[in-house]
Amino acid sequence: MLNMIKMLVAFRASTRVNLFYYYMQKLPLIGQRFPDGFYANIGFKQGVAVIAFIMSMLLGFAFRFAYVGLMLYMPVIALGEQWSSEERLNGFVHLFVMLSFVVAAISSATILEPKREKYVAVKLMRIAPERYMRAVLAYRYLTFLIYLLPAMLLFIKLLGGSAIEAVMLSLALTVWRLGSEYVHARIYDKTGTVLVKHMAIVWTSIAAGFALAYVPLAFGYVPFTGALMLHGISLAGLMIIGVAGALKLGSYDGFQTAVDAATKRDDPLLDLGRMMSEAQKSSVQSKESDYSLTGDGMLKLEGKEGYAYLNEIFFSRHSSLIRGPIKKRLIIAGAAGVIGVAAVTVLQGKLPVITMESRFFPAVLMLALYSLSVGEAMCKAMFYNCDLSLMRYGFYRADAPKHFQVRLIRMLRINLLIAVVFGASVTAVLWASGGPPGAELLLLWLAIFALAVFFTVHHLFMYYIFQPYSSEWNLKNPFYFIVNMLVSASYSISIIFGLTMGSFAALWMVLAPVYTVAALLAVRKHGARTFRVK
Fold it and tell me: What values do phi and psi take at 469, rounded to 5?
């Protein structure tokens, strides 16, 4: 077992180093400083692999601290200003139980997780599935406990709990999650169903779990879950159930079948590749009726030339593909306002007054406008229906700054329209809840418009500089994912620093034009090289 774990760690470290180095070679300016000869330098790679392993451990601790701090501790502190220490601790444990014991146990299963590493280890390296999976599960949950324990000790102590409670909760969760792995395996044995692949079940459980976790606390009610969980008998019962499931998992004889099921879904040349290709094709496929330009479509072409003419033809001929995401976002933004106003009106006096001074209000604005932006959907449509063919011509790549500007203006108009509807919905909900003064509303609208501009520029800039799409209908560039993840997670800045609406609006009113200018300059300098078929 120990030798297998060592090989697993070495394999993961080597994979990370090779992938990291490969994509470093693709970066502007510094890419040429990374020669191909690195791949044969075993000694240097081993040193880098050690650094990569240490970094992965540090990230593991950082992720657990971020999860426990942002998802469990801070909501309790923000919502429970008037609660006693005991109520805060019980609220924290309630969130911990709902999110970690319930939601995560349903939505995550390492044993049936489709992963390229599993395919390479079992199918290509011919490692016995039983040896591989036992090592993976042992390493996964040993590190899970190691990473979780310091965060639990810190935050439970801050809430007035004891170190024993933190240790027992961490141990209980670890064995519970091991037991849930066995349950997932048995469900597959009995029904042939990979539970984590049923999106309806997974997302329903996530939505229900988050609602049951946070809604009671938002109304000032601390469920009995926390107090019950901290009782010695409850913890002992969970430990016994978890240990029993873990022991069953250790003697489980169906690893071969489970790994076959997962690797079939993860085979890059078979099911997953075909499934992803078909999904990508259907998501960007136009209707035949779009290709006939009549009436308004012809009028829009008058007076246009060059890339403005080309893009007008594209948007007109793919109107159903473009209008679909826009309509969905407009409906969502408008419906949110209607539902919000109805809820505030019906529950008048029972809900706290919604105010922009809340620590979470700016973060909600950021997440909403990031999600409502049509940038990513439109970039994907432009690639597969227009750019995939044209990128093969040098003149088109060389003119990347020209069509970048044309598309930026078009996408800005669309996203600003969505921002107007969203802003009207937020304003209506605020007025129904008591309403902020006019000056604060002005700041709100300025922040909404700045965010709409920022995310429009961001999605198009990422498309032109990283160009993540490939001719095989999949995504290949990890830097695209990393930067997108960092931008989408930046909402936590407003929570951590408690930005007021004034400072939040001022921040984004500065960032939006700076990002726009930087994107224009970067595409002008590097677009001809980075905007290409992969």
Answer: -90, 150
| Calpha distance 40→51 (Å, rounded) | 18
Whether 135 and 8 have beta carbons less than 8 Å apart is answered as: yes
Largest CA distance in the chain: 78
Instruction: Supply the pLDDT for residue 1.
Output: 67
The per-residue pLDDT for 493 is 66
Cα(362)–Cα(352) distance, rounded to whole angstroms? 17
- A 10 A CB-CB count for 236 gives 12
Instruction: Note the pLDDT tens digit of each residue in 276-293.
Output: 444 444 445 555 545 455
Cα–Cα distance measured from residue 389 to residue 474, given in angstroms and rounded to the nearest whole number:
16
Which residues have C-beta within 8 Å of that of residue 338, sequence separation ≥ 6? 425
pLDDT value for 414: 92
Regions of the chain with pLDDT less than 50: 265-283, 289, 291, 295, 297
Query: Rounded CA gap, 297 and 132, in Å?
Result: 59
- End-to-end, the C-alpha distance of the chain in Å comes to 40
Helix (H) or strand (E) holding 87: helix 85-96
Confidence (pLDDT) at 263: 63
Cβ proximity of 494 and 359 under 8 Å? yes
- Residue 126's pLDDT is 75
- Amino acid identity of residue 299, one-letter, is L
Spatial separation of the C-alpha atoms in residues 484 and 462, rounded to whole Å:
8
SS3 percent helix, strand, coil of the chain, rounded to 5, is 80, 0, 20
Smallest CA-to-CA distance from 499 within 349, 356, 326, 285 is with 356
Q: What is the 3-state secondary structure (H, E, C) of 453-500?
A: HHHHHHHHHHHHHHCCECCCCCECCHHHHHHHHHHHCCHHHHHHHCCC
Mean model confidence pLDDT for the chain: 79
- What's the confidence (pLDDT) of residue 284? 52
Residue 360 backbone phi and psi in degrees, to 5: -90, -15
d(CA 482, CA 488) in angstroms, rounded, equals 10
| CA-wise closest residue to 417 among 301, 331, 311, 508 | 331
**166 contacts 156 by C-beta, under 8 angstroms:** yes
User: Three-state secondary structure along 308-347?
Assistant: HHHHHHHHHHCHHHHHHHHHHHHHHHHHHHHHHHHHHHHC
Measure CA 342 to chain center.
30
Is-contact 72 96, C-beta < 8 A? yes
Candidates 11, 151, 2, 183; CA nearest to 73 is: 151
Other CB atoms within a 10 A radius of the CB of residue 124 amount to: 8
Rg of the Cα atoms in the chain: 26
Give bridge partners of residue 469 from the DSSP assignment.
Answer: 475
